[in-house]
């Protein structure tokens, strides 16, 4: 099957910083004309659920302007061009929490919004997390770190109170690993 069955008739860059957004006029496989707006760059983004030796999760409340709300999230961020995924996780945890971690457990990557961008998200579980310094936030970040027992974090997930999809999926992927070790209850019917 043809991987790119649509013909690009026209392409314009609408924005380039902080992310590139393009408009393409397309002819689809059925001959229909379509205006499509998206982010074409394939950026890599890491997400990590940091877990302490006390079986607590280090999470953040982050203001997200499009929602006009503070959302509960796991720390996350873009991977620099020459940076490994693991190095990016460790850097983001230092920046957003002031935390250091031991072992990293990587889960399957996913495309969060393939209809709008080509970003690839990489979820991790970060073990032996401990806060060792103050967070080093960027100018536009409004982040409040906090700590919760793992069971409480999963209660919030089960109640639908974790509204950030990438955070929810990171917690979802980590749950069987944590449950196999007796750190959280496996989800029940």
UniProtKB/TrEMBL annotation:
Its cofactor is Mg(2+). PROSITE patterns: NUDIX, NUDIX_BOX. Coiled coil: none annotated. GO terms for cellular component: cytosol. Gene3D superfamilies: Nucleoside Triphosphate Pyrophosphohydrolase. It comes from the Bacteria. Residues 41-170 form the Nudix hydrolase domain. One of its GO terms (molecular function) is hydrolase activity. One of its GO terms (biological process) is nucleoside phosphate metabolic process. Keywords: Hydrolase. PANTHER family: NUDIX HYDROLASE DOMAIN-CONTAINING PROTEIN, UDP/ADP-SUGAR PYROPHOSPHATASE. This is NUDIX hydrolase. It comes from Oceanithermus profundus.
């Amino acid at each position: 099957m043809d991987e790119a069955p649509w013909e690009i008739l026209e392409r314009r860059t609408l924005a380039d910083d902080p992310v590139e957004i393009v408009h393409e006029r397309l002819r689809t496989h059925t001959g229909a004309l379509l205006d499509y707006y998206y982010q074409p760059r394939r950026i890599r983004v890491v997400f990590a659920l940091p877990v302490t030796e006390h079986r607590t999760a280090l999470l953040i409340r982050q203001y997200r302007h499009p929602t006009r709300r503070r959302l509960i999230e796991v720390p996350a961020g873009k991977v620099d061009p020459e940076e490994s995924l693991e190095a990016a996780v460790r850097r983001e945890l230092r920046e957003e929490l002031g935390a250091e971690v031991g072992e990293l457990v990587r889960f399957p990557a996913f495309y969060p919004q393939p209809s709008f961008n080509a970003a690839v998200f990489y979820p991790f579980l970060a073990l032996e997390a401990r806060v060792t310094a103050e967070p080093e936030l960027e100018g536009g970040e409004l982040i409040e770190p906090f700590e919760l027992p793992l069971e409480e974090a999963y209660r919030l997930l089960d109640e639908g109170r974790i509204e950030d999809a990438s955070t929810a999926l990171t917690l979802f992927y980590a749950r069987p690993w944590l449950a196999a070790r007796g750190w959280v209850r496996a989800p029940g019917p």
